[in-house]
Design brief:
The complex is a heterodimer of chains A (about 500) and B (about 140). With about 500 residues, chain A is mainly α. Chain A is built from 21 helices and four strands. Chain B contains five helices and five strands; from the N terminus they run βαβαβαβααβ. In chain B, strand 1, helix 1 and strand 2 form a beta-alpha-beta unit. Classes of the chains: A mainly alpha (about 500), B alpha/beta (about 140).
Chain lengths: ~500, ~140
């Protein structure tokens, strides 16, 4: 029986207020159709189709492209006279720091808890398909960015939707209207995505892990999540409003370090369970293609796997295009190639590692697994071999959450800038709202948070992917044209 | 063939003394002085999206400041009678000094002994010490 409103803690009050909102939004975005006894959200189908389409349309670029992408990142095509400009490595690092977040740790746990071990396979497949859509959107992002007189750059789906669609339709009135409408729709959902997935979900799971390592339900801060949220909000605010760069700098260095430690720990856990590995793999594949299972069979695993992969690697969502457009390069396709690597790193490597340790350690079989949800499940999986690791994970989670929040605040700011013609006031208002939602996100329970986060994030995919389809021919010409020049030697490696 | 001396310019006192030393030698040998300021930069750093966005502008500003605040005053200090080439570039200090020496056919690299603390130098190596290990030509470190 829910307590009377006034008797609830602040945490609970916020939760009670937000739940109907999140349910309403979820209902729209995740409108589902029943397929073989399971509900398939149309939006997931939308993203899968985009990934599949661009994979085929671009000639399986996700398989052929990574080699050149690595050459670019290693600087083999970088002119020494450009020393001091943003390098492809830095573009990749920035984007990966932004996408590697709680989705890789907590989101995957949710996937396994709901979709079973089979979700792992579909996550990997989604990762592969996502490489192509990410390449397409990042190429477009660089191609249609806007260079302002003060030298700064603004780019992203809102710009390629407006300018690109107008261009492709010969600047017809209808074309311009469609482009502008989609651009505005994208910007609004991006602000929502920034606040939901880039902010609330991160704050929520980071707080959850902090509470877990300080004693769980007996933690002194168990009912004071909003205070942890407030601390986060202050830190975020110090950077994005106060301009205190040092915090951001520390985080940016911390993220790759923690990612390395995370992967190392995952390898250790898998190594410690080596005898169980073949059986675990067998189970993963069996469940992935089962016609029926406790988790909804192949469809259930597919839906959950695809959803969590998309949430984690953001392919088709359009956010990466905003980050990559800031990089100065003559050839938009170079950033497209670099972007190929992101879903690979994010989903195929990091998410898969998380999934493997949850399955191999057997943590998901724990009857409390479903209730643990999120980061707690991943934490428990690590703890089966490395009992002290949850503390390290807490540090990692805070670092990942913080860097993702900073990156998404940037995306939200750019969207606000687009909508309000780069008004500084509007951008400041956004930043304040962003910080407020850090507190809200920390206070809610996982359910409504993940509902809102997912909804807003996936909403971005509607105008973005639509635009990508409209601009598909253009993207293909750009990418394949560039690759031809590289193959012929017109664009050659630079000797160092 | 005219000799070329490469001098690292960093605005420090030791750097100034290095320049004096180099200028003296250049006059004696009739050599050209290549004055270099390296702006420390790595292609492998991790940045925020804002830093990436502002990077191009910052780079221009850094190169311009290097010229006006360090290299041109250094050229003034050298005075008349010696041919001077000014270079400002981003990169790793030791490596870039060596690389530029190669590019300009320098016979000799002259740098000031940097003011990095003892502890830091012992742990990470100072620019002069790394340079002496990797350089292709003789290196003079002026205290």
């Amino acid at each position: 029986m829910p307590q009377p409103f006034l008797a609830q803690s602040i945490d609970e009050r916020i939760s009670t207020a937000m739940t109907p909102v999140s349910s309403a939004i979820e209902g729209v975005v995740f409108y589902s159709v029943p397929v073989a006894g399971v509900n398939l959200p149309l939006i997931v189908l939308w993203l899968v189709a985009a990934g599949a389409f661009f994979t085929v349309y671009l000639g399986f670029i996700n398989l052929r492209g990574p080699k050149h992408a690595l050459d670019l990142v290693r600087g083999q095509y970088s002119n020494p006279d450009d020393a001091g400009e943003v390098t492809h490595f830095q573009a990749l690092a920035t984007a990966v720091s932004g996408t590697v977040g709680l989705g890789n740790i907590a989101g995957v746990a949710v996937a396994i808890a709901i979709g079973g071990p089979g979700a792992t396979v579909w996550m990997i497949i989604a990762g592969f398909l996502g490489m192509s859509s990410k390449m397409a959107e990042c190429t477009l992002g660089v191609k249609y960015r806007r260079e302002r007189p003060d030298g700064t750059v603004s780019g992203g789906p809102m710009y390629y939707l407006e300018k690109g669609i107008a261009e492709v339709t010969g600047h017809s009135e209808g074309g311009k209207k469609v482009g502008k409408t989609l651009a505005v729709l994208f910007s609004v959902s991006c602000i929502g995505g920034a606040i939901g997935a880039g902010n609330m979900f991160q704050a929520n799971q980071a707080t959850a892990q902090i509470i877990a390592v300080t004693g769980g339900a007996d933690s002194p801060i168990a009912d004071l999540r909003w205070i942890v949220g407030l601390l986060f909000a202050v830190a975020v605010g110090a950077v994005i409003i106060g301009g205190i760069k040092s915090i951001a700098r520390v985080t940016e260095k911390l993220v790759p370090l923690m990612a390395g430690i995370y992967l190392l720990a995952a390898v250790v856990v898998i190594g410690a369970n080596l005898p169980a590995v073949p059986a675990a793999f067998a189970e993963i594949f069996r469940q992935a293609f089962a016609l029926d299972s406790a988790y909804g069979g192949i469809i259930g695993a597919l839906i959950v796997g695809f959803q969590r992969a998309a949430f984690s690697n953001e392919a088709g969502i359009g956010s990466a295009a905003i980050a990559h457009s800031a990089v100065r390069t003559e050839h938009p396709s170079t950033e497209g190639h670099v972007a190929l690597l992101e879903p690979f790193i994010d989903t195929i490597i990091i998410c898969t590692m998380t999934a493997l340790i949850i399955v191999i350690s057997g943590a998901y079989l724990d009857p409390v697994a479903g209730e643990l949800g999120g980061v707690a499940l991943t934490s428990a999986a690590f703890a089966t071999v490395l009992p002290w690791f949850p503390n390290v994970l807490a540090v990692a989670v805070v670092a990942f959450a913080f860097s993702t929040m900073l990156t998404w605040s940037y995306y939200g700011m750019k969207s606000t800038g687009y909508l309000f013609n780069d008004s500084e006031t509007a951008e400041t208002v956004f930043k304040v709202i962003f910080c407020i939602f850090v507190v809200i996100g920390a206070s809610l329970s996982l359910g409504p948070v993940i509902g809102i986060s997912d909804s807003m994030l996936f909403l971005m995919a509607i105008p973005n992917v639509l635009g990508m389809y409209i601009l598909a021919r253009l993207v293909k010409k750009e990418i394949l044209g560039y690759r031809a020049k590289v193959a012929s030697g017109e664009i050659a490696k630079v000797s160092h | 063939m005219a000799k070329v001396l490469l001098v690292g310019v960093d605005g420090s006192d030791a750097g100034r003394r290095a320049l004096q030393f180099a200028t003296g030698r250049a006059r004696d040998l009739g050599a050209t002085l290549v004055l270099v300021h390296v702006i420390p930069w790595s292609p492998y750093s991790f940045n925020t999206p804002e830093e990436n966005e502002q990077r191009h502008e910052r780079r221009q500003q850094e190169l311009a400041s290097a010229r006006t605040q360090l290299l041109e005053p250094a050229q003034q200090d050298v005075g008349e009678g010696v041919e001077v080439v000014l270079v400002a570039k981003h990169g790793d200090r030791a490596e870039l000094l060596n690389q530029l020496a190669r590019e300009h056919d320098a016979d000799h690299i002259i740098v000031g002994r940097t003011g990095e603390g003892r502890m830091r130098s012992r742990l990470f190596g100072s620019v002069p010490s790394i340079l002496t290990q990797i350089a292709d030509v003789p290196v003079t470190v002026v205290p």
